[in-house]
Amino acid sequence: MKITSTPWPSQSYLKALRPEPGAGVELALLAAYSADPVAIVAALLALVARDNDDTDGSRRDLADAIETLRGKARIVVQRGRLAKMRHTPRLTGVLDQFLREVPFDEREGSWHPKAALIRFCGVKASEWRLWVGSRNLTAPENLDVGLVLVGGGRQGRVIPGVEGIAHALAVQADLPGVRPDHLAAEVAALRWRAPAGTRIDSIFMAKGDGRSKLPTLPRRVDALTVVSPFIDATFLNHVAKTEVADGRRILLSTTREIERLAATTARFGALYALDAPDYPSSDPGSPVAETAGAALLETETLNAGLHAKLLHFRMGTKRKLWLGSANATARAWTGRNVEIIVQASITETIEAGLLVLLGSARTVDPIAHEKLVDVALEADVLDVARSQVASAWRAGIRIDDTGLTLVHAAATPHPHDLTIHLEVGLITGDFAPWPRGQQEIAFGQVPRDQQTELIQLAVSKDGLRREWMQRAPAEPPLGPDRDRAAFVRLLGVRGFLLWIAGLLVGIANAGDDDSWTSDELPPARPPSTLPAWRVDQALPTLEEILGAWARDRNGFDRADRRIRDYLPAVLEQAVVDDPAGHAQLEAFKELWTMVRHGLGTRR
Predict the structure, then answer these.
(1) What letter would DSSP give residue 334?
(2) Where does the pLDDT of residue 573 fall: very low under 50, low under 70, confident under 90, or very high at 90 and above?
(3) 313 has a pLDDT exceeding 50
(4) Are 410 and 289 contained in the same domain?
(5) What is the tally of structural domains in the chain?
(6) End-to-end distance of the chain based on CA atoms, in angstroms?
(7) Phi and psi (nearest 5°) for 209?
(8) Of 450, 475, 500, which closes a domain?
């Protein structure tokens, strides 16, 4: 069967996070089942309009993003699903402040929604965006589907269910000053504009309590389509109760899933398959991609593995589409997982885009699998062990005169299988064995720039290994000084000054800035074979300072905040790296203080 039509338009997921020129982020709550450092940083950079499809992002850009978004942004994921890169960049540790984990026991249910709720402040008025789809916050690219709703103003319509998303995200994000009830009420009153060709009937967020119901479908329709990378017999048999005029229910999944449930999928008259989705590997032999790669797409990605989740039917001129995070399984639709599902009425044009998706797949002959019986998925003992560790996690980090100590409040979270080994360490440090029954692991004195709440964990057996990250809240909490020490350590004195120069005078070639993924440290002193640089060669002059103030007051204020926030750490490092330069920096500090007071700079 040859299907040709107009594809759905492609749009970057990161574009949905990016503010318009002149606007900024007041609040950003992101949800995903899984995440990795590369995609987390890409999202943070997009929220401050510093993302670039061709690069990972620079150290200075990431520093700006963290300073701008501190206290405004959170990313909520399933505990145990923070992927660890084979080479973990030193700056990964500063991402802890943006991450919160939901402690679902994955043997029973999962935190599985994919959404982003953002409030932007602009020159004229505030604007809201709500992105809902199937895309995790991970670097590997799959074929995902999502949509963006724009809130605020008089156009659009009130959409039932958005308040539930806002409330749930706010509760899990636990941002100071954000009250879930107030946020839900504010969002509920907004009018939302949907993409052309769609009318949002409702948005539903399952609570993970198992009290939801399978979708209600008509007894007979003209067309019925299920798209999902994971399926189960309960859901498919429920959908198959609906009769189709031509007798051809359509299923798009993966070959493995279609064959695994062959006795059930045979009830669908048209079977299509795409490759299985790609996920960040927890096997250290297969690293998370080191680059963010192409942008994440709103409605259709590159021809990669299938990760979109859709349910569609047509009855006369009535066309309905469900999309979001829920796979075609009873676990997803009956509420054992926390999921977000959008129900929309769509036009023929939008429906035609679904046909393009089917046309990109390969057909599977149902006859070949008619007599096969369903086979059980093989259980990965290490994945089970990871879920056991994650669900039992009750850890925090104590900081005192002895250094940093991981303290587990209950029985240690070791796997039930006594032959599986558990290792632990700060994400900025090394692994060490975690003996069973030992509730405290001493990390000792850790330099301020390497302190973090992110813990790396590993389970291993018979030469196989799984590694991932989890968060352990620190007491007392780590503050902004930790972030600044980490960036200054990698930027160096000269790198910091070039950063300030770029902010003040817009120098396009203000020196190379390494990717945030690079751990290469600046030389303490230049090699004798290279010409020595002096700090005063990078220091902004009085004329440049005054010119920046006259040209762009807001830009001057940004530079002022960076200087006041970072200069103490720069001075501390200069004592070791360049004692002569330290004196020049002290002189610059006095000059800057005098100028900003003379100009009446806002504090």
Answers:
(1) T
(2) confident
(3) yes
(4) no
(5) 4
(6) 67
(7) -105, 0
(8) 475
Can you list the alpha helix ranges (DSSP code H) found in 21-174? Answer: 37-47, 59-69, 162-173
Same domain, 364 and 244: yes
Q: CA–CA distance from 211 to each of 121, 205, 214, 335, 337 (Å)?
A: 38, 12, 10, 6, 10
Helix, strand or coil for residue 166? helix
We report the CATH number of the domain holding residue 149 as: 3.30.870
What are the pLDDT digits (tens) for 44-92? 999 999 988 767 889 999 999 999 999 999 999 999 999 998 889 999 9
Tens digit of pLDDT for each residue in 415-445?
999 999 999 999 999 999 999 999 999 999 9
β-sheet with 198-205: strand ranges across = 198-205, 340-346, 318-324, 310-315, 223-227, 250-254, 270-274, 362-364
DSSP 470-488: EE--EESPP-HHHHHHHHH
Closest CA to 416 of 443, 384, 373: 384
Residue 575 lies in a domain: yes
CA distance 349 to 355: 10
Q: Could you give the CA distance from residue 568 to residue 478 in angstroms, rounded to a whole number? A: 17
Q: How far apart are CA 6 and CA 177, in angstroms?
A: 46
303: domain range? 220-369
Establish if 198 belongs to a structural domain. Answer: no
pLDDT in tens, 372-389: 444 433 348 999 999 999
Please tell me the pTM assigned to this model: 0.91
The pLDDT confidence band at residue 191, using thresholds 50, 70 and 90, is very high
Q: Answer whether residue 206 is part of any domain.
A: no
